[in-house]
Amino acid sequence: MSRERSSFDSIREATDDKSAYSGHGKAAGQAGYRDPGNLLRPAGDFLNESGASRALSVPEGQFQSLRVTLSWNNIVVESQGFLGRLLGKVTKAGVDLDLGCLYELKDGRRGSVQAFGGMYGSRDQSPYIHHTGDERTGDKPGEDEAIEILGANWENVKRFLVYAYVYHGPTSWDQIKPEMRIVVPGETPMIVTPSATRSDLPICALATVKNLENGVHLTNHSEYYSSHPAMDRAFGYGIQWEDGAKE
Which 3-state string (H, E, C) describes 76-140? Predict the structure, then answer.
């Protein structure tokens, strides 16, 4: 999914109500939904609140890699109806959650890295961002999906937006309870746990990672969207999106 059009193309074609702009740089897309429960979460963990941001200084020669991980479990959904609830009957519903990112390189190229569409990127050549592979169940121990950037190639990256997307299964973030971690060498991992109770927003813009003078700047977004294009417009990447399905 290469960057073949300017960001203004997507903006002109947008049909969403522009009454509430996102406020993310010069992007003109509609703002995403922020869950009140997330906004009121008590402080304590590193960058655990929506809008929290911090710049990290990475010691020269010690930045081996930057790693983003996502883990989740299949959820248990209570059966519908009064009798089912009374008898405590439950049904296990499989959830296929995808980790991805929108990126912008220093040379201006933009695109997406994600399991959907087999766009796994590359460690050693453009876009210098690599997706480790698709995990469709969330049943394996530890991390389920990961994105990695080698420190030697960090100078080529300008910014990227990490997101999680419910490809298949109930869109119940508060029940899926996924956990995203951004691990920067020598720093406390940034942890984001999407928990919105709305079931009509299958994509969560988790965090932005920017290259500032070869250091790392992190921002927690925890914003929810109805689609990839809606999220894209909110953050101004200007990517051309097409419908598709996994094989």
Answer: EEECCCHHHHHHCCEEEECCEEEEEEEEEECCCCEEEEECHHHECECCCCCCCCEECCCCCCCCC
